[in-house]
Write a structure and sequence with these properties.
heterodimer; A: about 500 residues; alpha/beta; Aldehyde Dehydrogenase, Chain A, domain 2; 7-stranded mixed beta sheet; 6-stranded mixed beta sheet; B: about 300 residues; TIM Barrel; 8-stranded parallel beta sheet; 8 strands
Chain lengths: ~500, ~300
């Protein structure tokens, strides 16, 4: 055939050149203090801790370690701002400030995305296309509600709660800050927020944005630190509301700590969500949904579809396609625009994942991992799946919070509903079928806060998110998210 | 139906299981290919590959031997000021122009593809389609681009469509058969998938999206759906089928996104003009412009690229 055909046919190895997002445009300080009462304040203890880039273990900055004394200062400033400024300000004025924060975040979207990737190890594609735009949208969405609360809760009198203490996790640092801060401010509350110790940077960049926005001092305070800093917030007497996203264990500790107090709480905790594939499903799209469900953000997603249930008649086909798709994922430097799976957030988390994979192998499950070269420095773990897993396997029961999928097969609809619900958690579920009636049947019977039909991991500020059972209580997002921050009478 | 020849493996029409395709999921997957960042050497290599995969096409009522000869010259001399560029894979013309094109492309290594079977509508009796195809093959066509009977397909006569393709395949001899589904008329991705399976099992060497006469033509969603059919067939039988998106791909960026899709769905193995083609008339010059830009750093005016 064609002469040129042979030339090309022999040289078809076509690989993407590295395409690194630039870091030249970002501004990071060497050391970050606490953001209290609209000012940057040194920690009373004088202590700082390092935050590193999990992709190469290099130090990014030093972060102030807030003590109970600092937390007290922050709560006092939030209380003062609440009483004197924020709760008495016309709601339409509050909305303007929230809109301004949203716009400033949009303007700095690129910088925020790069810093999120550096600090958390997540891929630039995800922080650029998901985390940052969604975080902005939460501020925009709740800004719109600020002066329309009477319409959100018709025939009720709406009042803010007061000072909210908010503790957020390391998997979606900026997004979780937005989820927490935006509805609280819209409803007229003031905030003391603590980011996770491994990922404080974007919350601190948000503090800079808030400073720039001219938000009255003390309305948002950001205190950084470890678990004891969080405990100081939870146990502070003058806090009206605790909003926590994180592990079920810490959720239980918080629940105990606030028992007998008047503090309200919303807890968004762990999950072990079922992703269910029926034999009539659009299989190729379902395979994408499985990949997206478990490997999105390296599996550090509380609603990750970590328990896969495949109808037995198509199991072999789905598994073969799944393995082939896993082979095509790019794992490596999160700053490369073509990377699909980035770095594990921390050494501790990497060890947790390794521990569970070891348990899976001891339990006799068959493991599959694509052959891929992981970077030598930094914390990485290949996408992993376990076949021949039983409902009674530890790896199918406990939250791993990493790129590890367990696969079980099922025969009938009733069987899979029973198995999907047979978990202490109840955060999310996915249902894949071409049959509409089956979707409705399952959505009424699955005990999970979010159920996706023929999709997975879709988020929107207008849509409530939260769990059943040990996955917590209360909802974030939508009007439901506002109701956690208001007193109704 | 049952006594028909089995072209591409053990087949009876009833046994092609319906493969559901979810449009939302396909859109999402396709969007991911479009976020791939193709830079530097990868880009240059990709652009050259695109050139080598083009079926330079003229399919107009006003086509003349003169026009076809000019296009054939362009096919062999894409951009002489730049050394080391490949030539295109083939030229694609109406059956009456095959002889002209063959003569113009003697010893060039470039194939002549002829559309056939009452292109573009396919609304003609089978005898006419048979004669149309025989004529093109006798004139020396290296490749036959046939259209399926979309009316029959949409009225549920899948067996008719299958048989027609199998019949045409028999006439092709050494010519490779590309089967045009005209996806713009099939309306749903479920239909695109079903028509792809029918064409592949009936004997297609290539499946092709469109005639270029109907919009929408080669959207990435449609091409992706067809690539998945090729992949499933390959996984089941080990046989490779080619793919040709045609119509609507006029920019380098879109062409590169298509290559990304082929690479990630089917693998590097399909990245040659033996297995992947672009049916396009204006794509080549945009690719040439990008190649020149990557060398000189500036975009040249379109007047520096010939338009045969």
């Amino acid at each position: 055939m064609a002469k040129n055909k042979k030339e090309i046919a022999e040289s078809v190895e076509w690989n993407y050149s590295p395409s690194l997002e630039s870091t030249a445009h970002i501004h990071l300080k060497k050391q970050y203090d606490l953001f209290i009462d609209g000012k940057w304040v040194k920690p009373s203890s004088g202590k700082y801790f390092q935050t590193i880039n999990p992709a190469n273990e290099e130090v990014l900055a030093e972060i102030a370690y807030a003590s109970a004394e600092d937390v007290d200062k922050a709560v006092k400033s939030a209380r003062k701002a609440y009483t004197e400024v924020w709760s008495v300000m016309p709601a339409s004025e509050r909305a303007k400030y929230i809109f301004r924060i949203a716009r400033l975040m949009q303007e700095k979207a690129r910088e925020l995305a790069v810093i999120e990737t550096l600090d958390a190890g997540k891929t630039i594609r995800e922080s650029r296309d998901l985390d940052v735009p969604l975080a902005c949208n939460h501020f925009f969405y709740y800004a719109g509600w600020a002066d329309k609360l009477v319409y959100a809760f018709p025939n009720r009198t709406v009042a803010p709660l007061g000072v909210a203490g908010q503790i957020i996790p390391w998997n979606f640092p900026l997004l979780m800050a937005a989820w927490k801060i935006a509805p609280a401010l819209a409803a007229g509350n003031t905030v003391v927020l603590k980011p996770a110790e491994t990922t404080s940077l974007t919350a601190l960049k948000l503090a800079e944005i808030i400073e720039e926005s001219g938000l009255p001092a003390g309305v948002v305070n950001i205190v950084t630190g470890y678990g004891d800093t969080g405990a100081a917030i939870v146990n502070h007497e003058d806090i009206d509301k605790i909003a926590f996203t994180g592990s079920t264990n810490v959720g239980k500790i918080i629940q105990k700590a606030i028992a007998g107090t008047t503090k309200k709480a919303t807890l968004e905790l762990g999950g072990k969500s079922a992703n269910i594939i029926f034999e009539d499903a659009p299989i190729d799209q379902a395979v994408e949904g499985i990949i997206n469900g478990i490997f999105f953000n390296q599996g550090h997603v509380c609603c990750a579809g970590s328990r896969l249930y495949v109808q037995e008649s198509i199991a072999a086909k789905v598994i073969a396609k799944l393995k082939a798709r896993m082979d095509s994922l790019y794992i490596g430097n999160p700053l490369d625009k073509n990377t699909d799976i980035g770095a594990i957030n921390s050494k501790e988390q990497l060890e947790t994942i390794q521990k569970y994979v070891k348990i899976g192998l001891q339990e006799g499950a068959e493991m599959y991992q694509p052959k891929c070269k992981l970077p030598e420095k930094g914390f990485y773990f290949p996408p992993t799946l376990f076949l021949d897993v039983a409902q009674s396997s530890v790896i199918a029961q406990e939250e791993i919070f990493g790129p590890v999928l367990t696969i079980q097969t099922f025969r009938t609809v009733d069987e899979v509903i029973q198995k999907a619900n047979n978990s202490p958690f109840g955060l999310a579920a996915g249902v894949w079928t071409d049959k509409g009636s089956r979707i409705f049947n399952l959505t009424t019977k699955l005990r999970a806060g979010v159920i996706w039909a023929n999709s997975y991991n879709k988020f929107d500020p207008t849509s409530p998110f939260g769990g059943y059972k040990e996955s917590g209580f209360g909802r974030e997002g939508g009007v439901h998210g506002l109701s956690s921050y208001v007193k109704l009478s | 139906m049952k006594d028909k020849k089995i072209r591409n493996g053990n087949f009876n029409l009833e046994s092609i299981t319906h493969v559901a395709v979810d449009k939302v999921g396909v859109e999402e997957r396709v969007a991911r290919f479009q976020t791939r960042s193709i830079k530097n050497e990868a880009k240059l290599q990709g652009l050259k590959m695109v050139l080598s995969m083009i079926d330079l096409t003229t399919l107009e009522g006003k086509d003349t031997p003169g026009k076809v000869r000019q296009m054939c010259y362009k096919a062999q001399h894409l951009h002489e000021v730049h050394a080391g560029l490949p030539s295109v894979a083939a030229v694609c013309v109406y059956p009456t122009m095959v002889r002209t094109a063959k003569n113009a492309l003697l010893n060039s290594g470039i194939n002549v593809a002829s559309v056939s079977t009452a292109f573009p509508s396919g609304q003609a009796p089978l005898e006419i389609k048979i004669r149309d195809t025989k004529f093109a093959v006798d004139e020396g066509a290296d490749e036959i681009d046939m259209v399926i009977s979309r009316g029959k397909f949409l009225s549920g006569e899948h067996a008719y469509v299958f048989d027609e393709i199998a019949t045409i395949k028999d006439l092709c001899g050494n010519a490779r058969l590309k089967v045009i589904l005209e996806t713009g008329e099939l309306a749903t991705l479920d239909n695109v998938r079903r028509a792809s399976d029918i064409a592949i099992y009936a004997g297609a060497d290539f499946i092709k999206t469109s005639t270029g006469k109907i919009q929408p033509a080669a959207t990435m969603q449609v091409t992706y759906t067809m690539l998945m059919a090729i992949k499933d067939y390959f996984d089941a039988t080990g046989k490779m089928i080619g793919m040709k998106p045609a119509g609507g791909i006029s920019t380098s960026k879109l062409a590169l996104h298509n290559l990304v899709m082929v690479k990630e769905v089917l693998g590097n193995k399909w990245l040659s003009n033996e297995w992947f083609r672009f049916g396009a008339s204006s794509l080549a010059n945009d690719v040439l412009m990008q190649i020149m830009k990557s060398e000189t750093g500036v975009y040249q005016s379109s007047d520096y690229f010939s338009i045969d």
